[in-house]
Amino acid sequence: MSDLIFHNFAVSPFSEKIRLIFGFKQLNWKSVTVPIIMPKPDVTALTGGYRRTPILQIGGDIYCDTSLIAEVLEKRSPAASLYPVAVNGLARTLAQWADTTLFWTAIPYAFQPAAIPSIFGNISAEELQAFSADRATMRGNMPRTSMGEAKGQLLAYLSRLENMLNGNAPFLLGAQASIADFSVYQALWLIRLAPAINPVFDAYPKLLEWMGRVAAFGHHQSEALSSAEALAIAKNAQDFDTAERNFVDSHGIALGEQVAIMPTDYALDPVVGELVIASENELAVRRDDDRAGTVVVHFPRVGFQMKRAK
Protein backbone atom coordinates (compact mmCIF):
# COMPACT_ATOMS: atom_id res chain seq x y z
CA MET A 1 0.00 0.00 0.00
CA SER A 2 1.09 3.56 -0.65
CA ASP A 3 2.68 5.52 2.18
CA LEU A 4 0.65 7.73 4.47
CA ILE A 5 2.12 11.20 3.91
CA PHE A 6 0.98 13.63 6.57
CA HIS A 7 1.38 17.37 5.98
CA ASN A 8 1.40 19.03 9.40
CA PHE A 9 3.21 21.34 11.79
CA ALA A 10 4.19 20.77 15.39
CA VAL A 11 1.76 23.04 17.25
CA SER A 12 -1.30 22.35 15.12
CA PRO A 13 -4.01 20.87 17.39
CA PHE A 14 -5.79 19.14 14.52
CA SER A 15 -2.44 17.64 13.46
CA GLU A 16 -1.98 16.33 17.00
CA LYS A 17 -5.39 14.65 16.74
CA ILE A 18 -4.25 12.64 13.72
CA ARG A 19 -0.75 12.00 15.10
CA LEU A 20 -2.38 10.37 18.13
CA ILE A 21 -4.64 8.32 15.87
CA PHE A 22 -1.50 7.05 14.11
CA GLY A 23 -0.34 5.97 17.56
CA PHE A 24 -3.70 4.42 18.44
CA LYS A 25 -3.73 2.41 15.23
CA GLN A 26 0.04 1.74 15.19
CA LEU A 27 0.40 3.13 11.67
CA ASN A 28 3.73 4.22 10.20
CA TRP A 29 3.66 7.59 8.47
CA LYS A 30 5.83 10.11 6.68
CA SER A 31 5.84 13.66 8.02
CA VAL A 32 5.98 16.74 5.80
CA THR A 33 6.33 19.93 7.82
CA VAL A 34 4.28 22.73 6.31
CA PRO A 35 4.58 26.47 6.98
CA ILE A 36 2.52 27.69 9.90
CA ILE A 37 1.24 30.68 7.88
CA MET A 38 0.68 31.54 4.24
CA PRO A 39 2.13 31.38 1.67
CA LYS A 40 2.19 27.60 1.38
CA PRO A 41 3.04 27.02 -2.28
CA ASP A 42 3.55 23.27 -2.06
CA VAL A 43 0.31 22.76 -0.11
CA THR A 44 -1.53 24.91 -2.65
CA ALA A 45 -0.11 22.83 -5.51
CA LEU A 46 -1.56 19.69 -3.92
CA THR A 47 -4.91 21.05 -2.77
CA GLY A 48 -5.70 23.78 -5.25
CA GLY A 49 -6.20 26.37 -2.55
CA TYR A 50 -7.36 24.61 0.61
CA ARG A 51 -5.09 26.02 3.31
CA ARG A 52 -6.06 24.38 6.58
CA THR A 53 -3.62 22.06 8.34
CA PRO A 54 -3.34 19.08 8.27
CA ILE A 55 -3.82 17.20 5.01
CA LEU A 56 -3.19 13.52 4.30
CA GLN A 57 -1.65 12.44 1.01
CA ILE A 58 -1.73 8.91 -0.37
CA GLY A 59 -0.09 8.98 -3.78
CA GLY A 60 -2.11 11.51 -5.78
CA ASP A 61 -5.09 11.48 -3.42
CA ILE A 62 -5.25 14.46 -1.07
CA TYR A 63 -7.58 14.21 1.93
CA CYS A 64 -8.70 17.40 3.64
CA ASP A 65 -10.19 17.83 7.14
CA THR A 66 -9.46 15.51 10.05
CA SER A 67 -12.96 14.03 10.07
CA LEU A 68 -12.32 12.55 6.62
CA ILE A 69 -8.66 11.74 7.35
CA ALA A 70 -9.80 9.68 10.35
CA GLU A 71 -12.20 7.74 8.09
CA VAL A 72 -9.37 7.00 5.65
CA LEU A 73 -7.15 5.72 8.46
CA GLU A 74 -10.03 3.58 9.73
CA LYS A 75 -10.25 1.91 6.33
CA ARG A 76 -6.47 1.40 6.28
CA SER A 77 -6.50 -0.19 9.74
CA PRO A 78 -10.01 -1.13 10.96
CA ALA A 79 -8.75 -2.92 14.08
CA ALA A 80 -9.05 -0.82 17.23
CA SER A 81 -11.92 1.06 15.62
CA LEU A 82 -12.40 4.78 16.04
CA TYR A 83 -16.13 4.15 15.66
CA PRO A 84 -17.23 1.40 18.09
CA VAL A 85 -20.58 0.07 16.89
CA ALA A 86 -22.42 0.68 20.16
CA VAL A 87 -21.52 4.39 20.25
CA ASN A 88 -20.83 5.16 16.58
CA GLY A 89 -23.37 7.96 16.14
CA LEU A 90 -22.68 9.47 19.54
CA ALA A 91 -18.91 9.39 19.01
CA ARG A 92 -19.21 11.18 15.67
CA THR A 93 -21.54 13.81 17.09
CA LEU A 94 -19.33 14.47 20.12
CA ALA A 95 -16.30 14.70 17.83
CA GLN A 96 -18.01 17.28 15.63
CA TRP A 97 -18.92 19.37 18.70
CA ALA A 98 -15.32 19.16 19.94
CA ASP A 99 -13.82 20.11 16.56
CA THR A 100 -16.02 23.20 16.35
CA THR A 101 -17.66 24.53 19.52
CA LEU A 102 -15.13 23.27 22.06
CA PHE A 103 -12.16 24.15 19.85
CA TRP A 104 -13.28 27.74 19.30
CA THR A 105 -13.89 28.10 23.03
CA ALA A 106 -10.49 26.70 24.03
CA ILE A 107 -8.40 28.62 21.46
CA PRO A 108 -9.01 32.14 22.87
CA TYR A 109 -8.23 30.81 26.35
CA ALA A 110 -5.05 29.10 25.12
CA PHE A 111 -3.62 32.17 23.42
CA GLN A 112 -3.05 34.19 26.57
CA PRO A 113 0.26 36.08 26.65
CA ALA A 114 1.57 33.92 29.50
CA ALA A 115 0.99 30.76 27.47
CA ILE A 116 2.59 31.86 24.20
CA PRO A 117 6.21 30.84 25.07
CA SER A 118 5.06 27.32 25.98
CA ILE A 119 3.12 26.95 22.76
CA PHE A 120 5.44 28.63 20.26
CA GLY A 121 8.84 28.57 21.93
CA ASN A 122 11.13 31.49 21.16
CA ILE A 123 8.83 33.19 18.69
CA SER A 124 9.67 36.82 17.89
CA ALA A 125 7.18 39.66 18.17
CA GLU A 126 7.22 40.00 14.38
CA GLU A 127 6.54 36.30 13.86
CA LEU A 128 3.72 36.35 16.38
CA GLN A 129 2.21 39.38 14.68
CA ALA A 130 2.40 37.60 11.31
CA PHE A 131 0.73 34.52 12.80
CA SER A 132 -2.06 36.62 14.31
CA ALA A 133 -2.64 38.44 11.00
CA ASP A 134 -2.73 35.14 9.10
CA ARG A 135 -5.29 33.63 11.48
CA ALA A 136 -7.40 36.79 11.37
CA THR A 137 -7.54 36.43 7.58
CA MET A 138 -8.54 32.77 7.94
CA ARG A 139 -11.34 33.55 10.40
CA GLY A 140 -12.75 36.33 8.26
CA ASN A 141 -16.09 37.43 9.72
CA MET A 142 -16.35 34.67 12.30
CA PRO A 143 -17.50 36.10 15.66
CA ARG A 144 -14.68 36.61 18.18
CA THR A 145 -15.01 35.19 21.70
CA SER A 146 -13.75 37.40 24.52
CA MET A 147 -11.45 35.98 27.20
CA GLY A 148 -14.20 36.26 29.81
CA GLU A 149 -16.69 34.38 27.68
CA ALA A 150 -14.12 31.78 26.67
CA LYS A 151 -13.13 31.05 30.27
CA GLY A 152 -16.71 30.83 31.49
CA GLN A 153 -17.78 28.52 28.70
CA LEU A 154 -14.61 26.42 28.98
CA LEU A 155 -15.22 25.79 32.68
CA ALA A 156 -18.76 24.68 31.91
CA TYR A 157 -17.54 22.27 29.24
CA LEU A 158 -14.77 20.88 31.46
CA SER A 159 -17.35 20.15 34.14
CA ARG A 160 -19.51 18.27 31.65
CA LEU A 161 -16.55 16.24 30.42
CA GLU A 162 -15.56 15.41 34.00
CA ASN A 163 -19.12 14.20 34.57
CA MET A 164 -18.85 11.89 31.55
CA LEU A 165 -15.91 10.17 33.26
CA ASN A 166 -17.63 9.72 36.63
CA GLY A 167 -18.51 6.10 35.88
CA ASN A 168 -14.78 5.25 35.98
CA ALA A 169 -14.68 4.15 32.34
CA PRO A 170 -11.23 4.97 30.91
CA PHE A 171 -12.57 6.90 27.91
CA LEU A 172 -15.37 9.36 27.28
CA LEU A 173 -17.81 6.84 25.85
CA GLY A 174 -16.74 3.70 27.67
CA ALA A 175 -13.99 1.12 27.79
CA GLN A 176 -12.71 1.80 24.27
CA ALA A 177 -11.24 4.99 22.86
CA SER A 178 -13.18 6.50 19.98
CA ILE A 179 -12.97 9.44 17.58
CA ALA A 180 -14.62 11.50 20.34
CA ASP A 181 -11.59 11.12 22.62
CA PHE A 182 -9.12 12.32 20.00
CA SER A 183 -11.29 15.28 18.99
CA VAL A 184 -11.93 16.47 22.55
CA TYR A 185 -8.25 16.02 23.39
CA GLN A 186 -7.03 18.10 20.45
CA ALA A 187 -9.33 20.96 21.46
CA LEU A 188 -7.74 21.07 24.93
CA TRP A 189 -4.18 20.15 23.93
CA LEU A 190 -2.67 23.65 23.64
CA ILE A 191 -3.91 24.51 27.13
CA ARG A 192 -2.31 21.30 28.43
CA LEU A 193 1.03 22.37 26.90
CA ALA A 194 1.20 25.65 28.87
CA PRO A 195 2.04 25.45 32.61
CA ALA A 196 0.94 29.07 33.06
CA ILE A 197 -2.67 28.23 32.22
CA ASN A 198 -3.09 24.43 32.51
CA PRO A 199 -3.96 24.56 36.24
CA VAL A 200 -7.48 25.21 34.90
CA PHE A 201 -7.66 21.40 34.71
CA ASP A 202 -6.78 20.84 38.38
CA ALA A 203 -10.42 20.90 39.49
CA TYR A 204 -11.15 18.01 37.12
CA PRO A 205 -8.99 15.05 38.22
CA LYS A 206 -10.75 12.43 36.11
CA LEU A 207 -10.33 14.60 33.04
CA LEU A 208 -6.61 14.97 33.78
CA GLU A 209 -6.24 11.20 34.07
CA TRP A 210 -8.13 10.77 30.81
CA MET A 211 -5.85 13.26 29.05
CA GLY A 212 -2.88 11.23 30.19
CA ARG A 213 -4.37 8.06 28.76
CA VAL A 214 -5.03 9.66 25.37
CA ALA A 215 -1.54 11.21 25.24
CA ALA A 216 -0.03 7.80 26.02
CA PHE A 217 -1.06 6.47 22.60
CA GLY A 218 1.85 8.50 21.21
CA HIS A 219 2.53 9.05 17.53
CA HIS A 220 3.97 5.62 16.58
CA GLN A 221 6.72 5.70 13.93
CA SER A 222 7.29 8.50 11.45
CA GLU A 223 10.08 9.66 9.20
CA ALA A 224 10.61 13.07 7.65
CA LEU A 225 9.78 13.70 4.01
CA SER A 226 10.38 16.94 2.12
CA SER A 227 7.53 18.75 0.42
CA ALA A 228 9.42 18.42 -2.87
CA GLU A 229 9.46 14.63 -2.45
CA ALA A 230 5.74 14.64 -1.64
CA LEU A 231 5.01 16.64 -4.80
CA ALA A 232 7.05 14.19 -6.86
CA ILE A 233 5.07 11.27 -5.42
CA ALA A 234 1.82 12.99 -6.35
CA LYS A 235 3.03 13.75 -9.86
CA ASN A 236 4.03 10.14 -10.46
CA ALA A 237 0.78 8.67 -9.12
CA GLN A 238 -1.12 6.38 -11.49
CA ASP A 239 -4.07 5.16 -9.43
CA PHE A 240 -6.62 7.20 -7.51
CA ASP A 241 -9.20 6.56 -4.82
CA THR A 242 -12.18 7.13 -7.12
CA ALA A 243 -13.76 3.68 -6.98
CA GLU A 244 -17.52 3.81 -7.50
CA ARG A 245 -19.49 5.10 -4.53
CA ASN A 246 -23.22 5.64 -4.26
CA PHE A 247 -23.98 8.94 -6.00
CA VAL A 248 -25.93 11.27 -3.73
CA ASP A 249 -27.23 14.30 -5.63
CA SER A 250 -28.14 17.08 -3.23
CA HIS A 251 -27.17 19.96 -5.54
CA GLY A 252 -28.46 19.05 -8.98
CA ILE A 253 -24.84 18.74 -10.13
CA ALA A 254 -23.68 15.72 -12.11
CA LEU A 255 -20.39 13.89 -11.88
CA GLY A 256 -17.96 15.36 -14.40
CA GLU A 257 -19.08 18.95 -13.93
CA GLN A 258 -16.67 21.64 -12.81
CA VAL A 259 -17.37 22.61 -9.21
CA ALA A 260 -15.90 24.69 -6.41
CA ILE A 261 -15.72 23.22 -2.89
CA MET A 262 -14.81 25.12 0.27
CA PRO A 263 -15.51 25.08 4.03
CA THR A 264 -18.72 26.54 5.42
CA ASP A 265 -17.20 28.40 8.38
CA TYR A 266 -13.70 29.83 7.85
CA ALA A 267 -10.72 29.69 5.47
CA LEU A 268 -13.15 30.05 2.58
CA ASP A 269 -10.68 29.26 -0.20
CA PRO A 270 -12.44 27.37 -3.02
CA VAL A 271 -10.92 24.32 -4.67
CA VAL A 272 -12.04 23.99 -8.29
CA GLY A 273 -12.04 20.79 -10.29
CA GLU A 274 -14.04 18.04 -11.97
CA LEU A 275 -16.50 16.41 -9.59
CA VAL A 276 -15.60 12.72 -9.33
CA ILE A 277 -17.18 11.73 -5.99
CA ALA A 278 -20.46 12.87 -4.45
CA SER A 279 -21.35 10.20 -1.92
CA GLU A 280 -23.27 10.34 1.32
CA ASN A 281 -20.22 11.44 3.30
CA GLU A 282 -17.65 12.63 0.76
CA LEU A 283 -17.04 15.05 -2.11
CA ALA A 284 -13.96 14.96 -4.36
CA VAL A 285 -12.62 16.76 -7.40
CA ARG A 286 -9.97 15.88 -9.94
CA ARG A 287 -7.66 18.74 -10.86
CA ASP A 288 -4.38 19.30 -12.70
CA ASP A 289 -1.43 21.27 -11.43
CA ASP A 290 1.85 22.06 -13.16
CA ARG A 291 3.87 20.94 -10.13
CA ALA A 292 1.72 18.20 -8.57
CA GLY A 293 0.31 16.71 -11.75
CA THR A 294 -3.18 15.18 -11.67
CA VAL A 295 -4.53 14.88 -8.14
CA VAL A 296 -7.87 14.06 -6.55
CA VAL A 297 -8.77 16.30 -3.60
CA HIS A 298 -11.25 14.80 -1.11
CA PHE A 299 -13.51 16.56 1.41
CA PRO A 300 -16.12 15.44 3.91
CA ARG A 301 -19.66 16.60 3.18
CA VAL A 302 -20.27 17.88 6.69
CA GLY A 303 -18.64 21.28 7.12
CA PHE A 304 -18.14 21.92 3.39
CA GLN A 305 -20.14 23.49 0.60
CA MET A 306 -20.19 22.91 -3.16
CA LYS A 307 -21.41 24.92 -6.14
CA ARG A 308 -20.84 24.97 -9.88
CA ALA A 309 -17.62 26.69 -10.86
CA LYS A 310 -18.06 29.93 -12.71
From TrEMBL:
<dbReference type="GO" id="GO:0016740">
    <property type="term" value="F:transferase activity"/>
</dbReference>
<dbReference type="Pfam" id="PF13410">
    <property type="entry name" value="GST_C_2"/>
</dbReference>
<dbReference type="InterPro" id="IPR004045">
    <property type="entry name" value="Glutathione_S-Trfase_N"/>
</dbReference>
<protein>
    <submittedName>
        <fullName>Glutathione S-transferase</fullName>
    </submittedName>
</protein>
<keyword id="KW-0808">Transferase</keyword>
<feature type="domain" description="GST N-terminal">
    <location>
        <begin position="2"/>
        <end position="81"/>
    </location>
</feature>
<dbReference type="InterPro" id="IPR010987">
    <property type="entry name" value="Glutathione-S-Trfase_C-like"/>
</dbReference>
<dbReference type="Pfam" id="PF13417">
    <property type="entry name" value="GST_N_3"/>
</dbReference>
<dbReference type="InterPro" id="IPR036282">
    <property type="entry name" value="Glutathione-S-Trfase_C_sf"/>
</dbReference>
<dbReference type="InterPro" id="IPR036249">
    <property type="entry name" value="Thioredoxin-like_sf"/>
</dbReference>
<feature type="domain" description="GST C-terminal">
    <location>
        <begin position="84"/>
        <end position="240"/>
    </location>
</feature>
